[in-house]
Design brief:
Elements: H1 38-47, E1 53-56, E2 59-62, E3 67-68, E4 77-88, E5 91-97, E6 103-104, E7 111-117, E8 126-130, E9 141-147, H2 153-160, E10 166-174, E11 185-191, H3 195-207, E12 214-221, H4 230-239, E13 244-250, E14 260-262, H5 267-273, E15 282-287, H6 290-296, H7 311-315, E16 323-325
């Protein structure tokens, strides 16, 4: 069973009367996707070898094979910033140009890249991981969404960058290798910019018409304007209502609306929306600030050691095998 108690106990990401909607097992019940390039990407992937097609008059011509920018060789690659855009008062989208129009980032699902910056007075460079929000097959550029943190050397530098400046990148670093239908159902628990690796995974699932994985997202933020990728997530919910559900928690939830829960992600909320432990081939992913990890799952021991599960998930009966910490 999907939930331990009725959805009606939640103020969730849609009007309450719609919150009892159940997942359907029939693929035909889904709406046809119109989300960005989902259909085009799916068709291109089926064509193989990284080929894309465009229409010139009545003829379809193949593009050259895509060229990966980051190939995991341990080398740093400088890329030029070509566009910046504020998404919220403390969050920016930064677009970096790839070497040619036929280059893609080189990332796989689910993986991240490293950024490096050394200021004039720094004893050593600052290195931080990020997950681009552009599709892995996107040619010519890739986008990072970066929230500026007080005292954060990399986020401050990225927010201070001007178009035309260069930034060093390395990767990709594989985090959790995804294959279609690897799990029947995944739950993504995200806080703030922790949504980016979740979005990479969710997007890959719904890009692929052969992947029937069901997805639940629990997304915590401070205010409504802090919710990143809200439009894209809402489109997914509308397009795949039988397979994708999103639940939002806000430290400062708008009182006049009933679509978000006031406060942090709680044990009671997780108990309601998570599948029962050992009820099937399910997986829980979590990514967010350190306090979220400590409260919900426990932190990782190291990049290569997930550590034991503690916090709310352990109290609810989930084990190390059920949980992956980004």
């Amino acid at each position: 069973m999907f939930a331990r108690s009725a959805f009606s106990t939640l103020r969730c990401a849609r009007p309450l009367k719609q919150g009892v909607r159940r997942y359907a097992s029939q693929a035909g019940e889904e709406k046809k996707s119109s989300f960005g390039t989902f259909a085009a990407i799916g068709a291109a992937a089926a064509a193989g070898a990284g080929y894309y097609f465009y229409t010139a008059g009545a003829a379809a011509k193949p593009l050259p094979p895509a060229v990966p920018t980051l190939v995991g060789d341990g080398k740093w690659t400088d890329l030029k910033l070509v566009k910046t855009e504020y998404l919220s008062p403390n969050t920016k989208l930064l677009r970096f140009e790839l070497p040619t129009e036929d280059h893609v980032s080189g990332l796989k699902v689910a993986s991240c890249l490293l950024t490096k910056y050394k200021g004039p007075n720094d004893a050593k460079p600052t290195i931080r991981p990020y997950t681009p929000t552009t599709d892995e097959e996107q040619r010519g550029y890739m986008d990072l969404i970066v929230k500026k943190y007080e005292g954060g050397p990399m986020s401050t530098h990225l927010h201070d960058m001007n178009d035309g400046q260069m930034l060093a990148f390395k990767g990709p670093l594989m985090k959790y290798e995804w294959t279609p239908n690897k799990h029947e159902h995944i739950t993504c628990i995200a806080g703030g910019t922790g949504i980016t690796p979740m979005y990479q995974l969710i997007r890959a699932i719904f890009n692929n018409p052969e992947d029937k994985t069901k997805v639940t997202l629990v997304f915590g933020n401070v205010t409504e304007q802090d919710i990143l990728l809200k439009k894209e997530l809402a489109h997914l919910e509308n397009t795949y209502p039988q397979r994708f559900k999103a639940f939002y928690t806000l430290d400062n939830a708008p009182k006049e609306q009933g679509w978000a829960t006031q406060g942090f992600v709680t044990k009671e909320l997780l108990k309601t929306v998570l599948p029962e432990p050992k009820s099937g081939n399910n997986k829980i992913f979590i990514c967010g600030p350190t306090p979220m990890y400590k409260a919900i799952s426990g932190t990782k021991k190291s990049p290569s050691d997930q550590g034991e599960v503690s916090g709310y998930l352990a109290e609810l009966g989930y084990t190390k095998e059920d949980v992956f910490k980004f």
